[in-house]
Amino acid sequence: MGKGDKKSRRGKINSGTFGVRRPRIKKRVRPEAKISVDKKAKTKA
């Protein structure tokens, strides 16, 4: 267990990889960014 161990967290940090022990932190998409409140849906009248 240490920097040379590929399965440990410290080993993943040292080698710069991700896995089960050190998952990637995903950025959340904010719902306000998806739907703009200012623009209204145009309807044919």
TrEMBL record:
Region named Disordered: 1-45
Keywords carried by this UniProt record: Ribonucleoprotein, Ribosomal protein
Pfam families in the cross-refs: Thx (PF17070)
Chain coiled-coil ranges: none
Sequence ranges of Basic and acidic residues compositional bias: 30-45
Keyword Transport in annotation: no
Biased segments, Basic residues type: 1-12
Top-level taxon of origin: Bacteria
GO CC annotation: ribonucleoprotein complex; ribosome
Assigned protein family: Belongs to the bacterial ribosomal protein bTHX family.
Protein name as catalogued: 30S ribosomal protein S31
Organism of this sequence: Olleya aquimaris
